[in-house]
Amino acid sequence: KRQRGTVGSRRLAWVNREKIWKKKNVIRDFARIVRLKEKNEELIEFLDMEGLFPILDLPDELISNIFSILPMKDRLRARVNRRLNAIEARSKYVEKSLEIVEAATNSDDDPVFKGVTRIVVSEDKTYSECIRKIARNTYFESLTIDLSGPSEFHSMIKEFNIGYLLLMFNDEEMEDEIVVDSFFVEAIKTCKHLDMFSMDNITAEALHELFKKKMSGEIKLGKLECEMAKLETCISFLRLIGITFRAGKFYSNRDIEVYEKWDEEKLDGVFIFDGAANMYFGHCQDEMFDDDFGCFSVSFSNRREWPNNNQGEYEKIEVYPE
Amino acid sequence: PNVKLVTSDNEEFVVDFRIAKMSVTVSRLMEAMNMSETDDASLLSNSIPLPNVTKAVMARVIEWCEKHKNDEPKEEKENDKRGRTTHVVSDWDKEFLKNDEFGRLCQLMGAANYLEIKGLFNDISQTIANMIHGKKSDEIAEMFNIHCDLTEAEKKEIRKKTAWCED
């Protein structure tokens, strides 16, 4: 025997039923609108669609546009049905910057650049497919990669298309292990501006290779910066491009300009412009290192680009024929 | 000088030439019809048919264009370079779009896309994106009344692939 409810509960049932009816009406209207839309667009105007966002009514390209401007985490969460999931997979990422931190454990540090999405990848390999997809679909204005080695994330770098790439390492030994010629050759292909801390294990030949690739138009890299480069490597590299440095003097048969910057009695930096590249060899920021190391940067341009835009500091010196 | 625009429901809107030019589509059509700002006869004798836009939507579009007709072309700021691309919806635009019900907003987006009015289109896209921002999957599904047709296995697969970027 069915129990009869109290007046209150029956009232509630009515209210609920009314609500359900209202909802049904809206859904019915909505279905009608979709049907009508094909026949007569203007009729839609008369129908009230309060509370319903016919997002699925939009063509794929417009939904895709919304996905593209969503922050990465939001857009991945928004794949709530098959169609959205499929559109998401096709949508471009316009995430301008990304910081990828390779770490065994989640770290809560702030990103290096303010406001940048920071994702942590760990030894768990499930990220690779997704990151690979993002890498292929996206041009990143800036990408910071903080490597610590456990997941061999560095091998994925060639999948990216980047404006400014900043490479950071947790561990010096690992950096020496990873940043070798083969890695360097891949890295210079992926970005327009490469910024790295050290390149101890990169040979003068690899730097020369970079120049050749740039001159043949094979790569788009416009700038390379290295905080700490071996002076010996830099000198060997200069020799490969026809510039000899010996006993404080420059010798070359090419049409080059060489400038020096002095800090009181000490040579602080050398700037060379060869018509296609601006090269700077400077004093290490870090006082810990001796004179065997210096910062090194190359910026490809057929115009002179003064380091730090500070022309006043430089004095032209003579270049002797070889 | 004025330009006549005719909507799908045969309503004629007479707008300033400058307003009409804000739509890439209209500007292209005017060019094709040899209508020019300096040639009054060409403007008087022609009207631009816009079969994909209704009267009600057109009125909203024109209202937006009126407000923005003196806008400077947007320049990208150098210091934005490392941040994420976000289109900032101005307060006036927020207020303007707030009055639109969801359905209307979608139509307006369709119209902005068809008419190629980039500013309005970005405003609406960003407004919708802002609505999605920070919401959980089920909240998004509820807000948009989306029926989830993914199987449990598919859901699991999606979750697995994106676990690395979830909080």
Per-chain topology:
The complex is a heterodimer of chains A (322) and B (167).
Chain A: H1 7-39, H2 60-69, H3 72-77, H4 82-90, E1 97-102, E2 117-121, H5 127-137, E3 139-147, E4 161-169, H6 172-178, H7 181-190, E5 191-198, H8 204-215, E6 223-230, H9 231-240, E7 243-246, E8 249-252, E9 257-263, E10 266-273, E11 277-283, E12 293-300, E13 314-317, E14 319-320
Parallel strand pairs in A: 1-2, 1-3, 3-4, 4-5, 5-6, 8-14
Antiparallel strand pairs in A: 6-12, 7-8, 9-10, 9-13, 10-11, 11-12
Helix pairs in contact in A: 2-4, 8-9
Chain B: E1 2-7, E2 12-16, H1 17-21, H2 24-32, H3 40-45, E3 47-50, H4 55-68, H5 91-98, H6 102-115, H7 118-132, H8 137-143, H9 152-162
Parallel strand pairs in B: 1-3
Antiparallel strand pairs in B: 1-2
Structural notes for this entry:
The complex is a heterodimer of chains A (322) and B (167). By secondary structure, chain A is of the alpha/beta class. Among the domains of chain A are: 8-57; 58-92. Chain A is built from nine helices and 14 strands. Chain A has helices spanning 7-39, 60-69, 72-77, 82-90, 127-137, 172-178, 181-190, 204-215, 231-240, and strands spanning 97-102, 117-121, 139-147, 161-169, 191-198, 223-230, 243-246, 249-252, 257-263, 266-273, 277-283, 293-300, 314-317, 319-320. Chain A has an eleven-stranded mixed β-sheet with strand order 2-1-3-4-5-6-12-11-10-9-13. In chain A, strands 7-8-14 form a three-stranded mixed β-sheet. In chain A, helix 2 (60-69) packs across helix 4 (82-90) and helix 8 packs across helix 9. Chain B has 167 residues and is mainly alpha-helical. Chain B has one domain (2-67, 86-161): Potassium Channel Kv1.1, Chain A (2-Layer Sandwich). Chain B has a three-stranded mixed β-sheet with strand order 2-1-3. In chain B, helix 6 (102-115) packs antiparallel against helix 7 (118-132). The longest helix of chain B is centred in the last third of the chain and has 15 residues, at 118-132. The model of chain B is unreliable at 76-84 (pLDDT under 50). Chains A and B meet through helix 2, helix 3, helix 4, strand 2 and helix 5 of A and helix 6, helix 7, helix 8 and helix 9 of B.
